[in-house]
Design brief:
With about 90 residues, this protein is of the alpha+beta class. The chain is built from two helices and three strands, in the order ββαβα.
Length: about 90
């Protein structure tokens, strides 16, 4: 099991099941709102996995599980970041 190195990240990531399962956990409870910072971190995780796959002859990852800390998975997207003028940039990142 390997945790993500960044302590201030809104995500925690690690490998389980003999490195065949990549777990990504939204880590901003209670709401786990998906804002621009979380979208950036999600993109980083997927880019890292894509690069690792390209460099390896074969990847062990067979599944990705997205879950969350706290009593709720997510309240959804950040309302403030989906106002006119900001929404296009948020969606592009996602």
């Amino acid at each position: 099991m390997r945790a993500a190195p960044a302590n201030d990240s809104p995500l925690k990531t690690w490998l389980e099941q003999e490195e065949t399962l990549l777990r990504i956990r939204l880590s901003v409870p209670k709401a786990n709102i998906i804002d621009a910072a979380m979208v950036v971190e999600l993109a980083k995780v997927f880019d890292q996995q894509k690069q690792a796959y390209a460099e390896a002859a074969q990847t062990k990852i067979r599944a990705i599980l997205l879950d969350a800390e706290g009593p709720h998975f997510s309240f959804g997207a950040s309302v403030e970041e989906h106002l006119p003028g900001k929404c296009a940039a948020m969606l592009k990142g996602f």
